[in-house]
Amino acid sequence: MKDVYNIAVFQGDGIGPEIMQPTVDLLSFLAGRGGYRYDFTDLPAGAAHYAKTGVSLPDTSMKGAREADAILLSAMGLPSVRYPDGTEISPQIDLRKALNLFAGVRPVRIFPGQRTPLNMPDGRTVDFVLIRESTEGLFHTQGRGEVSENEARETLLITRETSELLFDFAFAMARARKEAGRGPGRVTCVDKANVFRAFAFFREIFDAKAKQFPDVASDHAYVDATALWFVQKPWDFDVLVTENMFGDILSDLGAGLMGGLGVAPSADIGRNHAVFQPCHGSAPDIAGQGVANPLAMILSGAMMLEWLGLRHDHAALVADGTHLREAAEGVIASGEVLTGDLGGTATTQEAAAAVTAALSVP
Question: Any idea where the Isopropylmalate dehydrogenase-like domain is (predicted)?
Fold first, then answer.
Protein backbone atom coordinates (compact mmCIF):
# COMPACT_ATOMS: atom_id res chain seq x y z
CA MET A 1 0.00 0.00 0.00
CA LYS A 2 1.26 3.45 -0.94
CA ASP A 3 0.73 6.71 0.95
CA VAL A 4 1.86 9.11 -1.79
CA TYR A 5 0.43 9.03 -5.32
CA ASN A 6 1.77 10.89 -8.34
CA ILE A 7 -1.12 12.24 -10.42
CA ALA A 8 -0.54 13.64 -13.89
CA VAL A 9 -2.91 16.55 -14.52
CA PHE A 10 -3.91 17.81 -17.96
CA GLN A 11 -5.79 21.06 -17.43
CA GLY A 12 -7.41 20.96 -20.87
CA ASP A 13 -8.95 23.69 -23.01
CA GLY A 14 -11.89 26.03 -22.60
CA ILE A 15 -13.58 25.29 -19.28
CA GLY A 16 -11.01 22.58 -18.55
CA PRO A 17 -8.97 24.44 -15.91
CA GLU A 18 -12.16 25.77 -14.26
CA ILE A 19 -13.49 22.29 -13.51
CA MET A 20 -10.11 20.73 -12.77
CA GLN A 21 -9.22 23.04 -9.86
CA PRO A 22 -12.22 22.20 -7.65
CA THR A 23 -11.67 18.51 -8.39
CA VAL A 24 -8.04 18.71 -7.27
CA ASP A 25 -9.14 20.65 -4.19
CA LEU A 26 -11.68 17.97 -3.26
CA LEU A 27 -9.17 15.17 -3.77
CA SER A 28 -6.65 17.02 -1.61
CA PHE A 29 -9.31 17.53 1.07
CA LEU A 30 -10.05 13.80 1.17
CA ALA A 31 -6.35 12.90 1.16
CA GLY A 32 -5.65 15.20 4.10
CA ARG A 33 -8.48 13.63 6.04
CA GLY A 34 -7.50 10.09 5.08
CA GLY A 35 -3.80 10.23 5.89
CA TYR A 36 -2.42 9.85 2.36
CA ARG A 37 -1.14 12.41 -0.14
CA TYR A 38 -1.12 13.34 -3.82
CA ASP A 39 1.65 14.94 -5.82
CA PHE A 40 -0.13 16.68 -8.69
CA THR A 41 1.98 17.41 -11.78
CA ASP A 42 0.59 19.74 -14.46
CA LEU A 43 1.43 18.58 -17.98
CA PRO A 44 0.81 20.72 -21.09
CA ALA A 45 -1.31 19.42 -23.97
CA GLY A 46 -4.39 20.33 -25.96
CA ALA A 47 -5.67 22.60 -28.68
CA ALA A 48 -4.49 25.86 -27.12
CA HIS A 49 -1.02 24.38 -26.66
CA TYR A 50 -1.05 23.23 -30.29
CA ALA A 51 -2.03 26.72 -31.45
CA LYS A 52 0.98 28.16 -29.62
CA THR A 53 3.60 25.50 -30.33
CA GLY A 54 2.41 23.27 -33.19
CA VAL A 55 2.47 20.27 -30.82
CA SER A 56 -0.69 18.91 -29.16
CA LEU A 57 0.95 16.38 -26.82
CA PRO A 58 4.66 17.04 -26.09
CA ASP A 59 6.97 14.08 -25.53
CA THR A 60 7.68 15.35 -22.01
CA SER A 61 3.96 15.25 -21.21
CA MET A 62 3.67 11.72 -22.54
CA LYS A 63 6.65 10.72 -20.39
CA GLY A 64 5.02 12.28 -17.34
CA ALA A 65 1.79 10.44 -18.04
CA ARG A 66 3.62 7.12 -18.31
CA GLU A 67 5.37 7.68 -14.98
CA ALA A 68 2.23 8.74 -13.08
CA ASP A 69 0.13 6.52 -10.84
CA ALA A 70 -2.98 7.89 -12.55
CA ILE A 71 -3.94 10.62 -15.01
CA LEU A 72 -6.59 13.30 -14.55
CA LEU A 73 -7.56 14.87 -17.85
CA SER A 74 -10.01 17.71 -18.22
CA ALA A 75 -12.01 18.68 -21.30
CA MET A 76 -9.80 19.05 -24.37
CA GLY A 77 -10.13 20.42 -27.87
CA LEU A 78 -11.35 23.65 -29.46
CA PRO A 79 -13.57 23.70 -32.56
CA SER A 80 -11.58 26.60 -33.97
CA VAL A 81 -8.21 24.81 -33.71
CA ARG A 82 -7.70 21.86 -36.04
CA TYR A 83 -5.01 19.82 -37.68
CA PRO A 84 -4.28 20.56 -41.37
CA ASP A 85 -6.54 17.63 -42.39
CA GLY A 86 -9.52 19.27 -40.68
CA THR A 87 -9.76 16.95 -37.65
CA GLU A 88 -9.87 18.35 -34.13
CA ILE A 89 -7.01 18.27 -31.64
CA SER A 90 -7.56 15.24 -29.38
CA PRO A 91 -4.57 14.29 -27.21
CA GLN A 92 -6.89 12.15 -25.11
CA ILE A 93 -7.18 9.71 -28.01
CA ASP A 94 -3.41 9.75 -28.47
CA LEU A 95 -3.02 8.84 -24.79
CA ARG A 96 -5.47 5.95 -25.11
CA LYS A 97 -3.53 4.46 -27.99
CA ALA A 98 -0.04 5.10 -26.63
CA LEU A 99 -0.85 3.68 -23.19
CA ASN A 100 -3.09 0.90 -24.55
CA LEU A 101 -6.10 2.05 -22.55
CA PHE A 102 -8.39 -0.50 -24.16
CA ALA A 103 -11.34 -0.25 -21.72
CA GLY A 104 -13.38 2.92 -21.86
CA VAL A 105 -15.62 2.83 -18.78
CA ARG A 106 -18.80 4.91 -18.93
CA PRO A 107 -21.11 4.53 -15.89
CA VAL A 108 -24.79 5.40 -16.34
CA ARG A 109 -26.73 5.97 -13.12
CA ILE A 110 -30.21 7.43 -12.57
CA PHE A 111 -31.27 7.57 -8.94
CA PRO A 112 -34.25 9.05 -7.07
CA GLY A 113 -34.30 12.82 -7.39
CA GLN A 114 -32.12 12.94 -10.48
CA ARG A 115 -33.54 14.83 -13.45
CA THR A 116 -33.88 12.67 -16.56
CA PRO A 117 -35.78 12.99 -19.84
CA LEU A 118 -37.07 9.45 -19.28
CA ASN A 119 -40.50 8.66 -17.92
CA MET A 120 -39.15 6.48 -15.12
CA PRO A 121 -41.56 3.98 -13.53
CA ASP A 122 -41.93 4.38 -9.78
CA GLY A 123 -39.22 2.59 -7.85
CA ARG A 124 -36.97 2.07 -10.86
CA THR A 125 -33.30 2.99 -10.80
CA VAL A 126 -30.73 2.75 -13.57
CA ASP A 127 -27.21 1.59 -12.76
CA PHE A 128 -25.23 0.09 -15.63
CA VAL A 129 -21.77 0.42 -17.15
CA LEU A 130 -20.93 0.76 -20.81
CA ILE A 131 -17.44 -0.48 -21.64
CA ARG A 132 -16.12 0.87 -24.91
CA GLU A 133 -13.04 -0.54 -26.58
CA SER A 134 -10.93 2.61 -26.88
CA THR A 135 -7.90 1.88 -29.07
CA GLU A 136 -9.15 0.12 -32.22
CA GLY A 137 -12.46 -0.13 -34.03
CA LEU A 138 -13.38 2.62 -36.45
CA PHE A 139 -10.93 4.97 -34.71
CA HIS A 140 -8.02 2.81 -35.90
CA THR A 141 -7.10 5.02 -38.85
CA GLN A 142 -7.84 8.31 -37.13
CA GLY A 143 -6.04 11.01 -39.08
CA ARG A 144 -4.82 8.46 -41.65
CA GLY A 145 -7.95 7.76 -43.66
CA GLU A 146 -7.70 7.60 -47.44
CA VAL A 147 -9.43 10.47 -49.21
CA SER A 148 -9.55 11.05 -52.96
CA GLU A 149 -11.69 13.28 -55.14
CA ASN A 150 -14.52 10.77 -55.36
CA GLU A 151 -14.31 8.58 -52.27
CA ALA A 152 -13.05 8.27 -48.72
CA ARG A 153 -12.13 5.18 -46.71
CA GLU A 154 -11.53 4.47 -43.03
CA THR A 155 -10.47 1.06 -41.76
CA LEU A 156 -12.16 -0.67 -38.81
CA LEU A 157 -9.77 -2.90 -36.86
CA ILE A 158 -10.70 -5.55 -34.30
CA THR A 159 -7.93 -7.77 -32.96
CA ARG A 160 -8.21 -10.94 -30.91
CA GLU A 161 -5.60 -9.78 -28.38
CA THR A 162 -7.33 -6.50 -27.51
CA SER A 163 -10.81 -8.03 -27.61
CA GLU A 164 -9.82 -10.73 -25.14
CA LEU A 165 -8.40 -8.11 -22.76
CA LEU A 166 -11.59 -6.10 -23.15
CA PHE A 167 -13.88 -9.04 -22.45
CA ASP A 168 -11.81 -10.16 -19.46
CA PHE A 169 -12.25 -6.66 -18.07
CA ALA A 170 -16.00 -6.64 -18.74
CA PHE A 171 -16.68 -10.02 -17.16
CA ALA A 172 -14.53 -9.18 -14.13
CA MET A 173 -16.47 -5.94 -13.66
CA ALA A 174 -19.82 -7.72 -13.89
CA ARG A 175 -18.65 -10.24 -11.30
CA ALA A 176 -17.47 -7.47 -8.97
CA ARG A 177 -20.74 -5.56 -9.36
CA LYS A 178 -22.71 -8.72 -8.56
CA GLU A 179 -20.63 -9.34 -5.44
CA ALA A 180 -21.25 -5.74 -4.37
CA GLY A 181 -25.01 -6.09 -4.93
CA ARG A 182 -25.09 -3.58 -7.78
CA GLY A 183 -26.10 -5.87 -10.64
CA PRO A 184 -27.20 -9.38 -11.59
CA GLY A 185 -23.81 -10.28 -13.07
CA ARG A 186 -24.46 -10.09 -16.79
CA VAL A 187 -22.42 -8.86 -19.76
CA THR A 188 -24.10 -7.84 -23.01
CA CYS A 189 -22.01 -7.81 -26.19
CA VAL A 190 -23.22 -4.94 -28.39
CA ASP A 191 -22.32 -5.34 -32.06
CA LYS A 192 -23.62 -5.50 -35.63
CA ALA A 193 -22.72 -9.13 -36.29
CA ASN A 194 -25.66 -9.62 -38.62
CA VAL A 195 -24.05 -7.34 -41.21
CA PHE A 196 -20.28 -7.09 -40.68
CA ARG A 197 -17.81 -9.97 -40.56
CA ALA A 198 -15.61 -7.96 -38.20
CA PHE A 199 -18.41 -7.93 -35.62
CA ALA A 200 -19.13 -11.62 -36.13
CA PHE A 201 -15.45 -12.11 -35.24
CA PHE A 202 -15.90 -9.81 -32.22
CA ARG A 203 -18.91 -11.85 -31.06
CA GLU A 204 -17.09 -15.16 -31.56
CA ILE A 205 -14.29 -14.01 -29.25
CA PHE A 206 -16.87 -12.79 -26.72
CA ASP A 207 -18.67 -16.14 -26.65
CA ALA A 208 -15.41 -18.02 -26.14
CA LYS A 209 -14.45 -15.72 -23.29
CA ALA A 210 -17.91 -16.07 -21.69
CA LYS A 211 -17.27 -19.78 -21.17
CA GLN A 212 -14.38 -18.87 -18.87
CA PHE A 213 -16.79 -16.97 -16.57
CA PRO A 214 -19.55 -19.50 -15.83
CA ASP A 215 -20.74 -17.46 -12.83
CA VAL A 216 -21.51 -14.45 -15.05
CA ALA A 217 -24.39 -14.46 -17.53
CA SER A 218 -23.87 -13.25 -21.09
CA ASP A 219 -26.02 -12.21 -24.02
CA HIS A 220 -25.91 -10.20 -27.26
CA ALA A 221 -27.64 -7.14 -28.68
CA TYR A 222 -27.38 -5.30 -31.96
CA VAL A 223 -26.30 -1.70 -31.53
CA ASP A 224 -29.43 -0.19 -33.09
CA ALA A 225 -31.69 -2.21 -30.80
CA THR A 226 -29.51 -1.26 -27.84
CA ALA A 227 -30.02 2.44 -28.58
CA LEU A 228 -33.78 1.82 -28.53
CA TRP A 229 -33.60 -0.12 -25.24
CA PHE A 230 -31.48 2.61 -23.64
CA VAL A 231 -34.63 4.72 -23.85
CA GLN A 232 -37.29 2.05 -23.31
CA LYS A 233 -35.78 -0.10 -20.55
CA PRO A 234 -32.32 1.04 -19.41
CA TRP A 235 -32.89 -0.54 -15.97
CA ASP A 236 -32.48 -3.97 -17.60
CA PHE A 237 -28.77 -3.49 -18.34
CA ASP A 238 -25.78 -4.39 -16.16
CA VAL A 239 -22.48 -4.32 -18.09
CA LEU A 240 -22.36 -3.71 -21.83
CA VAL A 241 -19.24 -4.07 -23.97
CA THR A 242 -18.82 -2.78 -27.50
CA GLU A 243 -16.58 -1.44 -30.27
CA ASN A 244 -15.02 2.03 -30.18
CA MET A 245 -17.38 4.01 -32.43
CA PHE A 246 -20.52 2.29 -31.17
CA GLY A 247 -19.36 3.02 -27.63
CA ASP A 248 -18.66 6.64 -28.47
CA ILE A 249 -22.23 7.13 -29.64
CA LEU A 250 -23.97 5.08 -26.95
CA SER A 251 -22.02 6.76 -24.15
CA ASP A 252 -23.42 10.16 -25.13
CA LEU A 253 -26.90 8.65 -25.23
CA GLY A 254 -26.27 7.29 -21.74
CA ALA A 255 -25.20 10.76 -20.61
CA GLY A 256 -28.44 12.15 -22.03
CA LEU A 257 -30.41 9.68 -19.91
CA MET A 258 -28.65 11.05 -16.82
CA GLY A 259 -29.62 14.61 -17.68
CA GLY A 260 -26.61 15.69 -19.70
CA LEU A 261 -22.88 15.45 -20.22
CA GLY A 262 -22.29 17.65 -17.19
CA VAL A 263 -22.87 14.66 -14.89
CA ALA A 264 -21.22 11.99 -17.05
CA PRO A 265 -17.81 10.75 -15.83
CA SER A 266 -15.50 8.32 -17.60
CA ALA A 267 -12.28 6.37 -17.37
CA ASP A 268 -9.98 4.81 -19.95
CA ILE A 269 -8.18 1.89 -18.35
CA GLY A 270 -5.41 -0.44 -19.47
CA ARG A 271 -3.16 -2.97 -17.78
CA ASN A 272 -0.80 -0.42 -16.24
CA HIS A 273 -2.30 3.04 -16.76
CA ALA A 274 -5.63 4.84 -16.52
CA VAL A 275 -7.02 8.23 -17.54
CA PHE A 276 -10.02 9.81 -15.81
CA GLN A 277 -11.96 12.57 -17.53
CA PRO A 278 -15.46 14.00 -18.03
CA CYS A 279 -17.35 12.91 -21.13
CA HIS A 280 -18.14 16.48 -22.19
CA GLY A 281 -16.19 18.90 -24.33
CA SER A 282 -14.37 22.13 -23.55
CA ALA A 283 -17.39 24.49 -24.05
CA PRO A 284 -15.33 27.53 -25.10
CA ASP A 285 -18.51 29.60 -25.34
CA ILE A 286 -18.82 29.69 -21.54
CA ALA A 287 -15.13 29.54 -20.62
CA GLY A 288 -14.06 32.12 -18.07
CA GLN A 289 -17.59 32.85 -16.86
CA GLY A 290 -17.45 30.61 -13.78
CA VAL A 291 -20.64 28.76 -14.69
CA ALA A 292 -19.26 25.42 -15.95
CA ASN A 293 -20.57 22.25 -14.31
CA PRO A 294 -17.71 20.56 -12.38
CA LEU A 295 -19.66 17.42 -11.40
CA ALA A 296 -18.59 15.16 -14.27
CA MET A 297 -14.95 15.99 -13.55
CA ILE A 298 -15.49 15.44 -9.82
CA LEU A 299 -17.21 12.09 -10.45
CA SER A 300 -14.29 11.11 -12.70
CA GLY A 301 -12.00 11.90 -9.78
CA ALA A 302 -14.10 9.55 -7.65
CA MET A 303 -13.55 6.81 -10.24
CA MET A 304 -9.81 7.47 -10.02
CA LEU A 305 -9.86 7.01 -6.25
CA GLU A 306 -11.61 3.66 -6.54
CA TRP A 307 -9.23 2.44 -9.27
CA LEU A 308 -6.13 3.52 -7.34
CA GLY A 309 -7.44 1.98 -4.14
CA LEU A 310 -8.15 -1.39 -5.75
CA ARG A 311 -4.86 -1.36 -7.64
CA HIS A 312 -2.78 -0.60 -4.54
CA ASP A 313 -4.92 -2.45 -1.98
CA HIS A 314 -5.66 0.85 -0.23
CA ALA A 315 -9.08 0.57 1.40
CA ALA A 316 -9.21 4.24 2.41
CA LEU A 317 -8.93 5.32 -1.22
CA VAL A 318 -11.74 3.00 -2.27
CA ALA A 319 -13.92 4.30 0.56
CA ASP A 320 -13.13 7.92 -0.32
CA GLY A 321 -14.05 7.22 -3.95
CA THR A 322 -17.44 6.00 -2.78
CA HIS A 323 -17.87 8.99 -0.46
CA LEU A 324 -17.00 11.47 -3.22
CA ARG A 325 -19.37 9.81 -5.70
CA GLU A 326 -22.20 9.73 -3.18
CA ALA A 327 -21.60 13.36 -2.21
CA ALA A 328 -21.73 14.50 -5.85
CA GLU A 329 -24.80 12.37 -6.51
CA GLY A 330 -26.43 13.82 -3.40
CA VAL A 331 -25.95 17.32 -4.77
CA ILE A 332 -27.53 16.25 -8.05
CA ALA A 333 -30.46 14.53 -6.34
CA SER A 334 -31.24 17.44 -4.01
CA GLY A 335 -31.59 19.83 -6.94
CA GLU A 336 -30.75 22.77 -4.69
CA VAL A 337 -27.32 23.68 -6.08
CA LEU A 338 -27.24 22.98 -9.81
CA THR A 339 -25.45 24.74 -12.64
CA GLY A 340 -27.25 26.16 -15.66
CA ASP A 341 -26.95 23.04 -17.80
CA LEU A 342 -29.04 21.18 -15.19
CA GLY A 343 -31.63 23.92 -14.86
CA GLY A 344 -30.10 25.78 -11.92
CA THR A 345 -28.20 29.01 -11.38
CA ALA A 346 -25.18 27.86 -9.34
CA THR A 347 -21.64 28.79 -10.26
CA THR A 348 -18.84 26.29 -10.67
CA GLN A 349 -17.51 27.11 -7.22
CA GLU A 350 -20.95 26.90 -5.59
CA ALA A 351 -21.55 23.44 -7.04
CA ALA A 352 -18.12 22.26 -5.88
CA ALA A 353 -18.68 23.80 -2.44
CA ALA A 354 -21.93 21.84 -2.14
CA VAL A 355 -20.00 18.63 -2.73
CA THR A 356 -17.45 19.64 -0.09
CA ALA A 357 -20.26 20.36 2.34
CA ALA A 358 -21.80 16.95 1.68
CA LEU A 359 -18.44 15.31 2.35
CA SER A 360 -18.15 17.19 5.63
CA VAL A 361 -21.40 15.82 7.03
CA PRO A 362 -20.61 13.02 9.54
Answer: 6-355
